[in-house]
C-alpha cells in the first residue's frame, strides 16, 4: 500500500472571506510569506517524494504572484497542482484561464451550502455563492479536476442532502464533508459552530446515498465510527489519512509549516531515543523511515483526542480517533454508543478501495 504523496503548501493567511468556522479567523491579516520562501517549500516537497500539492491559505488566489507559483510547481514536475479556494477570485474567466495555462489542473472548492443564504451566512461575503458557481463553470470549461470541501457545522448540517443534490449537478470527482474541528483559532467558536455528532449522521448518510451513484469518492472526515455504522468506508480520520491519495503527508506538511525544524543530528537523536519502536517499524512492520516519522506525527496529533471508558468495548476502538478534547469539554461523552463485535485493528479495513485510486500509477 502506497503512502500519500500529496502535501499542503501554505502560502499565507490573508483572505477575501471571513468564514465563521475559520481555523485562522484572528490571523487573516498577517503578512503573507514572500515568493521565494514558498518556492523553497515546493523544492523541499519535490525533493522528499511529494507528487501532488494543494496550495492553501488563507486564500491563495489573492496573491499577486500566484500564477508564478503555479508555473514554478509545473516546472518542478508535480503531477497534480491544486488550489484550495473559496472561488471568489476565480469568478474572473481571464484569471482562471491564466492559471490553467500556467499549470493548475486540480481544484478543491470550499462550498458551504446549497444556496446563497446558507453559503454566504458562513462565508460572510455577499455574492460569494454566485461567484463560486461561475468558478465551477470555468473549471469545467478548462478541464480542471474538481473536488469539493464542505465544513459541517451547526448551521448547515440539516441542508447536506440539498447540498448533495446540488453537487450531483456539478459532477465533482470527489466530495469531502469535514466535521467542524477546533484547530488553531477555531477553538474559540466551538460553542457556536460545532455540530453534535449525534445530529449529523442521518443527513450525512442521506447525502452519501445521493452522491454515490455519480461521484467517485465521498469522504467524511473527523467523526467517530460509531455514528456511521454501515458507512464506515467513507470515514477518513487521522489513522486513515496515511494511505489516502487526497490527504496530506503530515510529516512533510509540518516541516513545510516550519513547526518541525530538526537537523540531521536531531533526527539521529530522535531515532536513538525511539530506537525500539523504530526498529520494530522497519523490521516487523516493514515501514520505511519516512513512514515512521509520519506515524509519529499522527501520534502527536491524536494527543488532542479522548475516548471514554465505554469506547474500549467498541469494535472500532483501535481505528477510531475518539472525540476532540474541546468537544468533550462542551458536549461530553453521552452521545457515544459502543458497537460490540470483533475488534478491528487494520485502519484501512473499510477504506482500502479508496487507497487504490492513484491516478497515473
Helix and strand arrangement:
Blueprint: E1 6-10, H1 35-47, E2 52-56, H2 66-76, E3 80-85, H3 93-102, E4 106-110, H4 116-123, H5 128-141, E5 145-152, H6 160-170, E6 174-179, H7 190-193, H8 201-211, E7 217-221, E8 235-236, H9 250-256, H10 264-273, H11 275-283, H12 289-302, E9 305-306, E10 323-324, H13 325-330, H14 352-355
Helix pairs in contact: 1-2, 6-8, 9-12
β-sheet strand percentage = 5-15%
**Low-pLDDT residue spans:** 259-263
**Anisotropy-based shape:** globular
Top CATH class of the largest domain: Alpha Beta
The CATH architecture of the largest domain can be given as Alpha-Beta Barrel
**CATH homologous superfamily assignment of the largest domain:** Aldolase class I
Which structural class is indicated by helix and strand composition?
alpha/beta
Can you put this structure into words, describing what you see?
With 361 residues, this protein is α/β, with parallel strands linked by helices. The chain folds into two domains: 6-251, Alpha-Beta Barrel (TIM Barrel), CATH 3.20.20.70; 262-302, no CATH class. The chain is built from 14 helices and ten strands. α1 (35-47) runs parallel beside α2 and α9 (250-256) packs across α12.
Overview in brief:
With 361 residues, the chain is an alpha/beta fold. The protein has 14 helices and ten strands.
Q: Descriptors for this entry?
A:
single chain, 361 residues, alpha/beta, TIM Barrel, 2 domains, 8-stranded parallel β-sheet, two-stranded antiparallel ribbon, 14 helices
Amino acid at each position: 500500500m502506497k503512502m500519500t504523496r500529496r502535501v499542503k503548501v501554505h502560502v499565507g493567511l490573508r483572505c477575501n472571506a471571513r468564514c465563521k468556522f475559520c481555523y485562522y479567523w484572528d490571523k487573516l491579516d498577517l503578512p503573507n510569506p514572500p515568493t521565494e520562501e514558498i518556492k523553497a517549500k515546493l523544492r523541499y516537497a519535490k525533493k522528499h517524494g511529494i507528487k501532488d500539492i494543494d496550495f492553501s491559505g488563507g486564500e491563495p488566489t489573492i496573491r499577486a504572484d500566484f500564477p508564478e507559483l503555479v508555473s514554478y510547481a509545473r516546472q518542478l514536475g508535480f503531477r497534480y497542482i491544486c488550489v484550495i479556494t473559496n472561488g471568489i477570485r476565480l469568478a474572473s474567466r481571464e484569471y482562471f484561464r491564466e492559471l490553467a495555462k500556467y499549470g493548475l489542473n486540480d481544484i478543491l472548492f470550499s462550498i458551504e451550502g446549497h444556496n446563497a443564504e446558507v453559503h454566504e451566512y458562513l462565508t460572510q461575503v455577499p455574492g460569494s455563492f454566485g461567484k463560486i458557481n461561475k468558478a465551477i463553470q470555468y473549471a469545467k470549461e478548462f478541464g480542471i479536476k474538481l473536488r469539493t470541501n464542505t465544513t459541517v457545522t451547526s448551521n448547515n448540517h440539516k441542508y447536506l442532502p440539498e447540498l448533495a443534490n446540488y453537487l450531483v449537478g456539478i459532477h465533482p470527482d470527489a466530495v469531502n464533508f469535514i466535521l467542524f474541528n477546533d484547530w488553531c483559532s477555531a477553538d474559540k467558536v466551538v460553542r457556536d459552530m460545532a455540530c453534535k455528532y449525534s445530529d449529523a449522521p442521518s443527513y450525512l448518510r442521506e447525502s452519501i446515498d445521493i452522491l454515490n451513484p455519480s461521484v467517485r469518492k465521498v469522504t467524511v472526515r473527523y467523526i467517530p465510527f460509531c455514528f456511521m455504522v454501515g458507512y464506515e468506508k467513507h470515514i477518513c480520520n487521522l489513522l486513515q489519512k496515511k494511505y489516502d491519495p487526497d490527504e496530506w503527508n503530515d510529516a512533510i506538511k509540518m516541516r513545510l509549516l516550519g513547526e518541525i525544524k530538526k537537523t540531521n543530528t536531531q533526527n539521529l537523536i530522535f531515532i536513538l531515543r525511539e530506537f525500539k519502536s523504530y526498529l520494530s517499524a522497519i523490521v516487523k512492520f516493514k515501514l520505511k523511515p519516512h513512514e515512521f516519522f509520519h506515524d509519529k506525527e499522527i501520534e502527536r496529533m491524536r494527543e488532542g483526542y479522548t475516548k471514554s471508558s465505554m469506547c474500549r468495548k467498541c469494535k472500532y476502538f483501535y481505528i477510531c480517533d475518539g472525540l476532540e478534547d474541546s468537544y468533550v469539554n462542551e458536549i461530553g461523552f453521552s452521545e457515544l454508543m459502543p458497537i460490540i463485535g470483533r475488534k478491528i485493528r487494520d485502519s484501512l479495513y473499510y477504506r482500502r478501495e479508496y487507497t487504490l485510486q492513484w491516478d497515473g500509477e
